[in-house]
Write a structure and sequence with these properties.
Elements lengths: L17 E7 L2 E5 L3 E3 L1 E6 L4 E3 L5 E4 L5 E3 L8 E4 L3 E9 L2 E10 L4 E7 L2 E5 L3 E3 L1 E6 L4 E3 L5 E4 L4 E4 L2 E4 L5 E7 L3 E7 L8 E5 L2
Length: 202
């Protein structure tokens, strides 16, 4: 004889609309290379609340001081780049909320490096990449979650710090931190490049 267990859950769909958002924590203090995860909390017309971080667009008033991620799964993560204060804004439609982030320290950002230097990605597979920043006082930090990742060829898809190849192709992967510091990692099959990510047919 067979027995079946059944569990049920009630689902309720409401017509409530998003009326306001708040960023939490509203203030944060970071050291150089430090990272804090901000959240956008939405309040709806029925007075319910929900985490709307994934649907918010995040910006920094000074990306040279504090960089904020707009990529899942690290959306809303803020990294301390140089001493100063920046206002981080979360926007959902016409609604906006801010948080103030202060970064302490005296060093300046000197370099940004993508690792590993050489990656071969089988077609349809994905590989992790990391971005490591260095400052003039000798300190280093993994800033993979707060750099701005860009790929020049849509055949390569970035999800957080993972690169997925969807076709045999070549292109360029770029990591940007602040306004001026960037590193370009060629995604190419040309042999003269030491840093490369290519999709290969397995």
């Amino acid at each position: 004889r067979y027995f079946t267990q059944l569990a049920t859950a009630a689902l309720r769909v409401t017509s409530a609309t998003l009326t306001s958002i708040d960023v939490t924590p509203p203030t944060a203090s970071l050291s150089l290379g430090g990272i804090v995860a901000l959240q956008a909390i939405g309040t709806f017309s029925d007075r319910s609340t929900a985490d709307v971080t994934p649907m918010a667009s995040w910006t920094s008033s000074s990306a040279a001081v504090a960089s904020v991620s707009n990529l899942s799964p690290t959306r809303g993560y803020v990294g301390g780049i140089s001493p100063g204060t920046a206002t981080i804004t979360a926007s959902v439609g016409s609604l906006r909320a801010t948080a103030s982030v202060s970064v302490s320290g005296t060093a300046t950002l000197t370099s940004l490096e993508i690792n590993p230097l050489d990656v071969s990605i089988p077609l349809g597979a994905r590989r992790p990449v990391t971005a490591v920043a260095a400052w003039s006082d000798g300190s280093v930090a993994d800033v993979s979650s707060v750099v701005s990742w860009e790929v020049s060829n849509p055949a390569f898809v970035m999800e957080g710090q993972w690169v997925t190849s969807t076709a045999l192709a070549s292109g360029t992967l770029t990591a940007r931190l602040g306004f001026s510091t960037e590193i370009v990692l060629p995604l190419t099959q040309r042999g003269e490049y030491r840093n490369r990510i290519i999709a290969v047919d397995t």
